[in-house]
Specification:
The chain has 2 helices and 6 strands. By secondary structure, it is of the alpha+beta class. Strand 1, helix 1 (39-51) and strand 2 (57-61) form a beta-alpha-beta unit.
């Protein structure tokens, strides 16, 4: 993770650094039918943790399903922002019936998003592996801290 603050030549070098508190959470959000246990309890707990607003940025992984994304989004503190479900997903990601083609990535930020991109991996792994069905990749989100 790289953090840069927009540079202004009139500012001293010490002003070019932004300190951010970042929390990374794996939601383990597979549907119960695919092996995830206690998912509703876990989503509630993650939402309650984010609602406290103790960090500037929350990086979420394995938030596979639309209803879970909506649950977390309903919990974000006032003034925070969250990527939309499709912002960090490959085309064809549904997330209603199953996680097929979805990345499971989401970002919650105290700061507005300036740029959001998603790059899908071209290699999906062997067919026998559940990873084959996910639309994994790299999410790129740019914010500008105050």
């Amino acid at each position: 993770i790289h953090f840069y603050k927009r540079m202004d030549a009139s500012e001293p070098p010490s002003q070019h650094v932004a300190e951010l508190s970042v929390m990374s959470l794996n939601a383990w959000g597979m549907p119960k039918t695919l092996g995830s246990k206690d998912k509703l309890i876990r989503m509630d707990a993650i939402g309650q943790h984010i609602q406290k607003g103790e960090h500037d940025v929350y990086l979420l992984q394995e938030l596979w399903m639309r209803p879970d994304h909506a649950k977390i989004k309903s919990c974000i503190p006032p003034g925070y922002h969250m990527t939309e479900y499709v912002d960090l997903a490959a085309r064809g990601c549904d997330g209603k019936v199953g996680p097929y083609g979805c990345s499971g990535l989401a970002v919650v930020s105290k700061f507005k998003f300036v740029d959001i991109k998603f790059h899908s991996y071209s290699d999906r792994g062997p067919f026998r592996d559940g990873e084959y069905f996910a639309g994994k990749g790299v999410g790129h989100v740019r914010i500008e801290p105050d």
